[in-house]
Structures are given as structure tokens and as C-alpha cells.
Amino acid sequence: MKKFMLYLCAALSFNAYALTPGEIQSLIQQAQETVQSLPQTQEEDIAIAIAVSLSMPRASLLKLGQDARDAGLALTFRGVGTEIKNKTDEKPQTVAQRYGKGLIARHMEDFKFLTDVGVNIQIDPVLFARHNITDVPRVMVVPVCRSACERTQAILVARGDVSLRYALEALFKEGTEKLRVNPNSQELQKTLKLIEDALARLGDRS
Question: What is the pTM of this model?
Fold first, then answer.
């Protein structure tokens, strides 16, 4: 887009003598249409987040991951591997000092049972901090801030070790009830559509 605008400026600067006023107006109109056709940058959007931890039972995590995969969603972890703590009787060490260059590779191996079956994994400590997540799993509809924002409260939250379909249906029911109270809320309308689409992709399952 920047190159197109530079080309347009150059054409107008150096070739204006060869263009009629109508041709110049046409070039400007084309530039405006190109700009208007670009996707609009949104400072805030919404998304379904599934907060989990490797501390969960492996079978539950795998089932949730497979359902999330089929619904087009990801599992979000606070970080890689287990938390590393210094022993009380030793000099504090950083993660890199304790485990060296192979740290990330070794910890990513912890997720292999999920990635091997196509589960999408995300590492997002900001999500956990912003929403004060202390228990997992949680299925949430959250605002996604593409820049600094003050929204730190999830729109909808479902807690507990239940199936993804059950959690999404609970969120849809709660969102529907909230929309009855606030029928003009575009955020709630978009939230329900987001959940509905995920449920459609997931299909019927327990």
C-alpha cells in the first residue's frame, strides 16, 4: 500500500504535465478506493480462550485439546513446562543458568502428546495475568487488545473439568440471557455468533 501511494505521488509530481485533470482525479479516486478496501484495524476484538495447565490430568487435557482442535480453537498455557524454583540453600539462578540452551526444546517436548494429534498450543502469560487465572480449565470469551487497553474482565467464563461442548453451551446460554437484558449490545451479539460457530465446527459429541 505504501509503495502504491509513493508511486501515485511520483506520477502526480513528475507526469502531471501529461495528465488531464480528469485523469488526475481518476488516479486519486483509485487510491481512495484502494485504501477503503483494506481491512480496518481494530483496537479491540473478542476471542474464545481455553486456559489450561500441564498440571491437569493428561487424559482430560488431551480430550479437551482434540475438541478444541476440531472447534478451530487453541489451548492456552501460562508458560512452557513446569515452574522452576531455586532451592532455599543455593544461590538464586535464572532459568537459563540452571537449564542452559536446551531449556525450551526440552520443555516443548512436554506438549508433544498434544501437538502430535494436531492441537494448537499457545503460550500467553499475559492472558493469565490480565484475567487473574488461578484455576484451570477455563473456557472464556475475552476482549483481545491489539494495543494497550483497560479491558481486563472476561465477557463470559465457564469453569470446571467439563467437555468443551458443555462449556460452550453454558456460555451460549449465559450470553443469551445477558442479551435479553441488553438487546442492543453488539459485543454480546458478536459473542454469541462466535460461540455458535465454534459449536457448529465441533458438532455433536459428549
Answer: 0.69
